[in-house]
Design brief:
The structure holds two protein chains of two kinds. Helices cover about 90% and strands about 0% of the residues of chain A. Chain A has three helices and no strands. By secondary structure, chain B is an alpha/beta fold. Chain B contains twelve helices and 13 strands. Chain B has a six-stranded mixed beta sheet with strand order 7-6-8-9-10-13, with helices on both faces. In chain B, strands 2-1-3-4-5 form a five-stranded parallel beta sheet, sandwiched between helices. In chain B, strand 11 and strand 12 form a beta hairpin. In chain B, helix 2 packs across helix 10, helix 2 packs parallel to helix 11 and helix 3 runs parallel beside helix 4. The longest helix of chain B has 20 residues. Classes of the chains: A mainly alpha, B alpha/beta. Chains A and B meet through helix 2 and helix 3 of A and helix 3, helix 4 and strand 7 of B.
Chain lengths: ~130, ~350
């Protein structure tokens, strides 16, 4: 029994279907890759923005401590002493929040050193302000 | 008997040992060594000898040293868990390294509240300072002092405890409280601190710091304020205080995290072994380090010799598993890896060093 060769029309239709399926799969894969890349960029950007926010808050709270210190030097007031400590606690809390994140050993060490420097700064400030 | 023990030790030696990293002071280290000897004398853990890996560096409170030691221990795949570090700042700094590397850290004496949030691999054998603050505030308030000065080390340990004590004293209506921070390392100046405290003329000094730094201010402080009543937090303990003749620490009331006066045969046996080896009494640090190593041996035996298996077993202690029996009492952890609070107020007896019990 002999097999009849596929007709030209059938070959063309089959080829067209294969091309369409392959093109669709490629498009979907490309879309998936694009979405994945976008998600990864979003994740990295969000992490960076979060870190920047924490860093901004640390700078903000330490600046407020400096303002409190300036006020105490101008006119000693217990409320400013309290505010100095509260802002210091907030800065420390933000630094700890930063340290609870995933960090490289070098970055972690840098933040830990910053925390120790801040603690020493607070003690020096207390001594100086108590003299006023 | 000796031949059987030797044969057993030889059989154990054929299997690779299980290693535990330790970052402890000399007293804690001796406690950990006594625990290892106990475990190995009983045949080890499933036929494997237990070994300690001690890299030193425990005496420093600096984050740089703590992070370097933690990295070395966490990257050593042979180390199954870590007992340490010796103080709250170092434990907290190192905790993130251990959590990132999925290795259990048991901090025997770390009390800073933030450690509860350190991560799922962080456990401790004491409770958070939230409870100690209430305990200390009760003691100070009961004395009805005319003037209180709170001297605190401005690190993760002291500043957190000071803020909590401040709130608790306020709640009890205690007024006229002056707060004096200090730093121990680098720019820390003991004589300046003694001068500042003396100027405040307190009737009660609440010391939220370590005994070693207090020793440096004791003489000028006592000379200027001979009637000063001093109460200290748990950071104050240790062999140095227990062995003091009373000249430096005499009369000071300080918080201890362990009741070593309990009638418990296992505790008494360890006390006796410690006394022979150290020529001094068992300290809280040593007792807690002993329990930490014994607990890890149990975790490896019952949970498996794998970092994650140890964590899983530890997290179920007191819920799925019965609490462990330590020489410091029953051990179980809350969801945040903390132990139930226990405080004992001890007084350094003036006039004579403590005779061994």
């Amino acid at each position: 029994m002999a097999f009849a060769p596929p007709s030209l029309r059938r070959t063309l239709i089959t080829s067209a279907v294969i091309v369409v399926v392959a093109a669709t799969a490629a498009s979907l894969f490309s879309l998936y890759l694009t979405l994945e890349t976008r998600n990864a960029i979003d994740r990295d950007s969000n992490a960076l923005i979060d870190e920047q926010r924490i860093a901004d808050r640390i700078v903000g709270f330490t600046h407020r401590q400096q303002i409190d210190a300036y006020r105490i030097l101008q006119q000693p007031d217990n409320r400013d002493h309290g505010s100095f400590d509260v802002n210091g606690d907030s800065a420390e809390m933000q630094m700890q929040l930063y340290l609870f994140r995933e960090l490289s050993p070098a970055a972690r060490l840098q933040v830990e050193r910053m925390k120790e420097t801040h603690q020493a700064f607070e003690v020096s400030a207390h001594r100086a302000l108590d003299l006023v | 008997m000796a031949a059987i023990a030797a044969a057993f030790a030889s059989a154990c030696a054929e299997r690779s040992p299980y290693r535990i990293g330790v970052v402890l002071g000399s007293e804690g280290l001796l406690g950990a060594r006594l625990a290892v000897e106990s475990v190995n004398a009983a045949g080890g853990v499933d036929g494997h000898l237990l070994q300690l890996r001690d890299l030193g560096g425990a005496s420093s409170g600096s984050a740089q040293v703590a992070l370097a030691v933690a990295e070395s221990l966490a990257t050593d795949s042979g180390v199954l868990a870590v007992v340490g570090h010796a103080n709250s700042s170092a434990s907290l700094a190192a905790s993130q390294v251990y959590n990132a590397r999925h290795i259990v850290q048991i901090a025997p004496t770390t009390t800073t509240p933030l450690y509860s949030q350190a991560g799922p691999y962080s456990f401790r054998l004491v409770s958070s300072d939230e409870f100690q603050a209430r305990y200390l505030a009760d003691i100070v308030a009961a004395a009805k002092p005319a003037r209180i000065t709170v001297a605190y080390v401005n690190d993760d340990y002291g500043r957190a405890l000071q803020r909590l004590v401040h709130a608790e004293l306020e709640r009890r209506g205690v007024k006229d409280v002056r707060e004096v921070p200090y730093v121990e390392e680098g720019s820390g100046d003991p004589l300046e601190l003694a001068r500042v405290i003396t100027l405040e003329k307190p009737t009660v000094l609440l010391w939220l710091g370590r005994a070693t730094f207090f020793a440096q201010i004791a003489r000028p402080l006592r000379a200027a304020l001979p009637a000063l009543d001093i109460v200290a937090s748990d950071g104050f303990g240790g062999a140095r205080v227990q062995g003091d003749s009373g000249r430096i620490y005499g009369g000071i009331r300080h918080v201890r995290l362990v009741n070593l006066e309990r009638a418990d045969t296992a505790l008494q046996a360890v006390q006796s072994r410690y006394r022979i080896r150290a020529s001094s009494e068992l300290t809280d640090d040593a007792a807690l380090a002993y329990d930490a190593v014994m607990l890890l041996a149990q975790a490896i035996r019952e949970g498996g010799a794998d970092r994650d298996a140890i964590r899983t077993w530890m997290s179920k202690l007191g819920s799925d598993h019965a609490a462990a029996n330590g020489i410091t009492g029953p051990i179980a952890f809350s969801a945040s890896g903390d132990r139930a609070p226990l405080y004992v107020l001890d007084t350094v007896r003036p006039g004579a060093a403590r005779a061994p019990r």
